[in-house]
Design a protein that fits this description.
The complex is a heterodimer of chains A (99) and B (867). Chain A contains 4 helices and 5 strands; from the N terminus they run βαββαββαα. With 99 residues, chain A is an alpha/beta fold. A 5-stranded mixed β-sheet of chain A has the order 3-2-1-4-5. Chain A is globular, with a radius of gyration of 12 Å. Chain B has 867 residues and is α/β, with parallel strands linked by helices. Chain B has 5 domains: 88 residues, HPr-like (Histidine-containing Protein, Chain: A), CATH 3.30.1340; 123 residues, 3-Layer(bba) Sandwich (Glucose Oxidase, domain 1), CATH 3.50.30; 103 residues, PtsI, HPr-binding domain (Enzyme I, Chain A, domain 2), CATH 1.10.274; 308 residues, TIM Barrel (Alpha-Beta Barrel); 160 residues, Mannitol-specific EII, Chain A (3-Layer(aba) Sandwich), CATH 3.40.930.10. Chain B contains 32 helices and 28 strands. The relative contact order of chain B is 0.07. Classes of the chains: A alpha/beta (99), B alpha/beta (867).
Chain lengths: 99, 867
Amino acid sequence: MKVIAVTACPTGIAHTYMAAARLEKIAKHFGHEIKVETQGAMGIENKLTESDISQAQIAIFAVDIEIEGRERFNGMKVIQVPLQEALKNPEGIFAKIER
Amino acid sequence: MADQNHKSLEVVFSCPLASGLHARPASHLAEVANQYVSDCSLTNLRNGLVANAKSVLGIIAADVRHQDRCVLLVKGADERPAQKALHSFIHETLPHCDVPLVDTARSSHSYAIPRFLKAAGVTAIPGVPVSRGIAQGHVVILRTMGLPHKISSGPGILKPNQELDRVREAVASVRQQILEKLKYSLTPTANAVLQADLALASDVMLLEKLTERVLSGKSAAQAVVETAEYFIDLLAHSESEYIRQRSADIEEICVQLLQEICGEAPSARVELTGPSVLIAESLGPQQLLQLDRHWLRALVLGHSASTSHAAILARSLGIPTLAAVRNAPLLLSPGLEVVVDANRGFLIPQVSPKVRQFYEREQTVLQSRKAAWSRDLRISAITTDGKRVEVGANASSGEEAILAFENGADGIGLFRTEILFLGRNDSPSEEEQFAVYSEVVRTADGRPVIIRTFDIGGDKKAPYLNLPREENPFLGYRGMRIYAEHEPLLHTQLRSILRASSAGRLQIMAPMITTLEEVVQFKTAVTRAQGELAQEGFSVSPDIKIGIMIEVPAIAFVLDRLCREVDFFSIGTNDLSQYFFAADRTNQKVSTLFSVRHPGFLAFVAQIVERIHKNKKWVGLCGDMAADIRNLPLLVALGLDEISGPAAEVHELKRAVSMLHTADCAKMLARAIASERACEVDDLLAVPLAPQLEPLLSEELVVLESSSRTKEEVIQEIVDACYIAKRTEQRDLLEEALWAREELYSTGLGYGFATPHCMTDAITNDSICVLRLRHPIHWDSVDGEPVRMVVLLALRNSEAATPHMQIFSSLARKLMNEDFRQNLLEADSASAVTAYLAEQLGAAFVSNLSLKKSLSSGADLISQKPD
């Protein structure tokens, strides 16, 4: 499955990137293709393009704050969880996807 | 005072001193005026105030501020010589006769009780720190300072003449007491303060006002009280805070007078019998000097004067002092044990076990910080290719030398002694000079200090030398050239330098040398002083090094010969360049001719250095060329043995050296010398040195055996680690920022790791700090597991997309990797942690100083060893 994700936390120094790393690793483990956009202290990185979004079946938002450019994902199937969830139980998030 | 029939003689000037004509310069002016019988008045044209120029108090009250236009009117029997003397004082001495006082109190002081103490319910009384430090002791209250409004007791009123005798005797006795204290004065600062007090006690206007009142029928005691009120009121109207604060000094003198007249035991004699914190509404400098410093731990003052003489003295003696503490004598009872925290700015009136615990820990932190800082400063400036460059500092006073060493100077490349000789009416004694040189050499703690004998003449005049007025002073009678005529002065100075040399590495340097004969004369004078001291039984370093300044181009062509006579040279670029170009550096009209970056001048200096090195002698450079950091590549390329810059810039210079590569510098110098014009060299140097970010991490920021047992203690410990490594000056704010983040949700990321982090200006450099805990602790982690390793990420509030943020994000990602975590958990030393992180995150972001240290033990990176 093609999965896209956005991570964002309040200070944008640490957890945004930890969550991104964690999601990438677990996705690989479950055999999914994933691209994670980070919205942290450095702004938006690894930005999801229109084609990324159109090709993906599902979007994961592991965020504690309102994300930038949410309208890009209108009409998509979105799973939104608190960022901590991506650290605590990323397997659970992917289990939800597969259901 | 001005008589209509006969016009007074005038001296018009505008005040050259940044802090105005305050007590110390005013006492110099009054001293000159008092040498003549003529009347002398000072009018401040800005505010119209007129003062008797023979009175320090009068001059102070005229409120002369920087650049105020003023006129001195002289009239009387000896008005011509008086006017001449005043003219020369105003134009030649006055501009040099003030050393600015550093007001260390922060103007907008805000205090915060550390989180730990707040949590323990500790209350504190705020105050303004005027002399830093922390101390603990028992309260001793000094209540007697201050004058009564009316004298109710005391001796009965006698006839006016007898009352006047009482006043005169009291003044004489107070003067005598100050003179006694001067004999045992401990520091140059204490000396200056007591001199100012002496001037106040001897003030003509003070005596005038006292006399007036006594002759009108008042008792001597009442006259003192009213006179004090008169002057205090006068000064209270000054627009300068500094001058308003001088009223404390007058009050002290008047209290002393009163004690003399009323025959009371000196009230300031407080006996200290144990560790004491002295509480007083205000405190005079003399009272302070009377206290037993063995037991005096801290001062707490009610008044707010941060430049009061007591505060200045407290700083010079290192006594922690809080000022502006309201109602302290009412809030604290004698004998109570208190803590004075004059770093943060408060007093804790109840020393509970928690307070004790906090300050015991604080003491360890402060010691570590001091040790870490002095280690860091002792680290040499080494270019990226491993060449060591000695960076010294120029200084003119003990204070400046301390500043230089605090900034990491490898030595004092030029200690100017003129300041000791200027702005006074007689030359400094051997003892006075000995005290100053000894202080400098003690501060140097084994590092070399080059003391230059006095360079007077040119733009620097001393009245007691009676130097002739010259058409062209810079090409005339100055430096070495006046030594033959003023031989006793040189002799006294050489004696004091040689005596001080037994305490460390002193070297002697002569200014303005033009010929070989002068060098021989100078050396003879040194030998004579050495012989004399040896006979008198002084221990004198026998092989003291003697050097000369290179300021006169003529000597550049006899260097081979000179190298046989002297041990070292120092290039004074200011004078050397002005003589090289025959252009006065202060004359705007010829300033375009004058540039130390002129290709011709650079080639000239390069030749000088080469010649001296061929003869295997040492050559340094002092002067303004080293003050401009952009010249540094040229100076490094010249191969100088030492670059001596301004005391405050040493740290910057050292850091800049460590970013240079000698090959780049050599190329730069070659291109500069091959240029046609100075402005081309300016362009070459205009490209700033490559900006280099402070490293994120150094070994000091890695603690592998932390014994913290709670999250609170861990946060406190990482904040302290940042403080020890000088990465924060605002621990409380940093601590609060970290807790603010923790309160959103725990930073425990699982796997036994936590990453407290924040974005705050309380951190001075973006930093990573690593703490490995001996006892795993609860951190509310996502997996509920206890934490064993804590990694702090602290970022300044700056543009988000810094390279450091990339490192942080990459570190955050790597923490998700088991191997990475395992490596950190198993590292066996702090250097192993920094080395691993350097490998994983990029070497540039880990302190190059610690890298150099660890590399130098293996590879021979440091080619030149410090001597």
